[in-house]
Amino acid sequence: MGGPDVGLTYLYNWCSRTIWSASPTPQDIANLTKEEIQEMITKAMRTGYFFVRIAGLSGAVAIIMGAYGSHKIATSEIPEKQKRSFESASRYHLINSLALLGVPLTRRPALVGSLLMSGMILFCGTCYFNGITGNNSFNRAAPIGGSLLILGWLAMAL
Questions:
Q1: Longest dimension (CA), the chain
Q2: 60 pLDDT exceeds 80?
Q3: Strand runs (DSSP E) across 9-80, as ranges?
Q4: Are 153 and 117 in contact (CB under 8 A)?
Q5: What is the mean pLDDT of the chain?
Q6: Distance of CA 144 to CAs 54, 87, 107, 120, 124, Å?
Q7: What whole-number distance in Å separates Cα of residue 125 and Cα of residue 156?
Q8: CA–CA distances in Å: residue 87 to residues 50, 63, 137
Q9: What share of the chain is helix, strand, coil (3-state, %, to 5)?
Q10: How wide is the angle at C-alpha 21 spanned by C-alphas 18 and 22, nearest 5°?
């Protein structure tokens, strides 16, 4: 699969294409300051393509959780309310993971992507937790997450 040099090579190639007009050496990248790294991350988020990678990871997790729900949660003897909570989390997680793919096409990709990601974490995470454990202690975060998801979708229209 490759060692640490693969990651350094990727970072070098990415920086060459997106940040610097003259190609730096790998040593230049190793000597980046904290501020330069933050600027690099900020530029990546502003273009929105960062969120496409997040969408891929989030979609994979959504599929894994959906499979877990189909094979473990659906066939277990837990209350129906917990099963519905888990199913809702799985459905919204996958739908909003797909929405992240459209983030680079928006006017404000950092805003839209951040709202959708935060909303998924709070809403879906709360529902997953409740569906698996039956613990309601984090349920107050679900409406906040749902509101963030709505704002993320509305921000796509701006």
A1: 62
A2: yes
A3: none
A4: no
A5: 85
A6: 21, 19, 24, 10, 11
A7: 23
A8: 28, 12, 19
A9: 80, 0, 20
A10: 120
Distance CA 10, CA 61 (A): 24
pLDDT of residue 20 exceeding 60, the answer is no
Average pLDDT over residues 126-130: 96
Question: Angle of helix 125-133 relative to helix 141-157, nearest 10 degrees?
Answer: 150
Distances 107 to 46, 48, 104, 113, 157 between C-alpha atoms, Å: 10, 10, 8, 11, 9
User: Which residue in the block uniquely carries the two structure tokens 């679900």?
Assistant: 142
Residues 155, 111: contact at Cβ < 8 Å? yes
CA neighbor of 118 nearest in space, from 158, 155, 149, 156: 149
The token pair that represents 2 in the structure block: 């490759």
Give the residue carrying structure tokens 């969120």: 51
The sign of the dihedral angle between the CA atoms of 157, 56, 38, 6 is negative
Q: What's the pTM?
A: 0.72
Q: How far apart are CA 50 and CA 34, in angstroms?
A: 19
Q: How far apart are CA 148 and CA 57, in angstroms?
A: 20
Give the dihedral sign, CA 123/124/130/133: negative
Question: Taking the mean position of all CA atoms in its chain, how far away is CA 158?
Answer: 21
